[in-house]
Amino acid sequence: MALADELIEGGVTWAGVGFMAGSGLLHVVYYASLQRAYASGDLSVVYPLARGAGPLLSVAAAILFLGERPGTLGLAGGLLIVAGVLSLVAGGSRAGTGAALTTGAAIAAYTVWDAHAVGPLNQPPIVYFWGAELIRVLLLSPLVRDPGTAWRENRRAIVGVGTLSPLAYVLVLFALTRAPVSLVAPVRESSVVIGALLGARVLGEGHLGRRIAAACAIAVGIAALALS
Q: Contact 119/128 with Cβ under 8 angstroms?
C-alpha cells in the first residue's frame, strides 16, 4: 500500500494504474499474435503486414476517438498502405496473414491507449511503462517453462531484446507526449522495407521483387501519414 501511495504522489493517478493494466493486457495480445504470425508466415510478409496495418489502424482510431484530422496526403498514404498490404496478402499463407493483421490491430490498440495515458491523463512515461511491464510479467509468468535452459541457450538475445525493446518503447511514449498519434505511429514503423529485404534475401523466402515493392509502398504510405 505504501508503494501505491508513493506512485500516486509521484504523478501516477489511479486512472493511470488502470491504463497500465490495460496496456499490459494489450501488449500480451500483441506478443502472442506476433509469435503465432512468425511461426506460420514469412518474415518478409508478416513484418510489413503487421507494421503497416498498425499505423493505418492507429490513425483511423485517432480520427475516431482522439479527434485528430489527417489531410489529403494522409488519406493517400493510407490507400498506399492498403495497396501494399493487399499485395503481401496475395503471397502469404492465410495463417500468417491473419495473425499478422491481429498483431497490427494490437499495435493500433495499445498505441492509442498509451497515447491517452501519457497525453490527456499526463502519466509519467517511464513510470507508466514499467507499471505496464509489471502487469505483463504477472500475466506471462505462469506460462514460463524451464527459464534456466532458455537463459543458457539464448542469453545474448534475451539481454539484447530486454534492453533495446523497452528503451525503444519508452522513447515512443515520450514522443506521444509531444506529437499526435497520427504522426508518431507511422514514423515508428519506417523499418518495413528492411524487414521485407531481410526476409526475402537473408532467409531466402523468395518473391524478392514483389515483396520489396509492396513494402516500399507501405513505407511511402507511412511517410505520407507522418507528413499529413
A: no
pLDDT tens figures, 33-78: 999 998 888 887 788 888 778 777 877 877 787 777 767 887 788 7
Dihedral sign computed on CA atoms, order 202, 204, 206, 211: negative
H helices within 13-90, ranges in order? 14-40, 43-65, 72-89
Q: How far apart are the first and last CA of the chain?
A: 46
For 28, other C-beta atoms within 10 Å of its C-beta total 17
Q: How far apart (Å, rounded) are the C-alpha atoms in residues 65 and 108?
A: 12
Q: Which amino acid is at 69?
A: R
Q: What is the pLDDT of residues 189-210, one digit of tens each?
A: 666 777 777 777 777 776 777 7
Q: CB atoms < 10 A from the CB of 128, how many?
A: 23
Q: What angle do CA 201, 202, 203 make, to 5 degrees?
A: 95
DSSP line for 114-137: HHHHHTTT---HHHHHHHHHHHHH
Measured N-to-C along each axis, helices 43-65 and 94-118 cross at an angle, to the nearest 10 degrees, of: 40
Residue 208 φ then ψ, to 5°: -55, -50
Q: What angle do CA 74, 76, 82 make, to 5 degrees?
A: 105
